[in-house]
Amino acid sequence: MNIDFSKGLYPAKVGSGFQMDGYYVWCGSCIKGEDGKYYLFASRWPIETGFPDGYMFHSEIVLTSTDSLDKPFQFEKVIFTKRDGNFWDSTMSHNPQIVKHGDEYLLFYIGSVDGKGETRKIGVAHSKSITDGWVRPDKPIELPENANNPAVIIKENDGIYMAFRDGKLKVSIAYAKSYTEPFTVLNYDIFPKGRVEDMYLFVNNGKFEIIAEDNEGAYTGLVGAGVHFVSDDCKNWETCEPLQVYDRTVEYTDGNVLQLQRRERPQLFFDNGKTYLFTTAKIDGPTRECGGKTWNMVQEYK
Fold this sequence. Notes:
mainly beta; four-stranded antiparallel beta sheet; 1 helix; 1% helix; 50% strand
């Protein structure tokens, strides 16, 4: 794969992406089905529960679909919501990332037993189908406290690499031979210069790369911009050119330009030789931190 971020993004198509009346929408992860449709796993929670805190007690993972990335994704069903009992994800389900491995689909996500940040954990569900048959894990992956924001890549004959962050936005890398085996942390705090979250891990030109949210602007100089890292071994990381792979200004095909309060959860999607960026967008809140309107948006890199 040879991905070049330096030319920037095309304007977003009017009406594309996913939004849902009555809900905050977050965390979009896309995959293409054997039927040729595009499926987006996303998080949602009711507007009346508040942003952002409502997600800790009310977030659920939903499945949406479209036959073209130029068109809106349509809600299909709830995949995971609250469940009775003292499970690691009884209170909420959030941060989905969908990947395929062999003939199985794997859905990595976070949950909480009691709606508290320090009890967030990462788990992985599996199914032979994108739309049905999801087996929800009764136990999470054993990782350090408050592990969240999972970003995984599966390398054939080389296991699963996972980036995750803790409550202080310190990012670490873990590895397992398969999703059914224990994960071992390979390196802690791989980005010590500043707070980073919402990683997306991929392989480009034979090297590991990450794009992520520059939470404090410590790397790019812009709070919430997309920052770019590279590694030979997935353990030791350095910044990579272009350093900034997106900002918070979004142009649409009708000429409308939005200045986003927040742009988070970057996820790449590769289709027919093209690279697409999925991000969550937020506008119109009284502050950057709270309220407003959210949706999942998609743009193609040039």
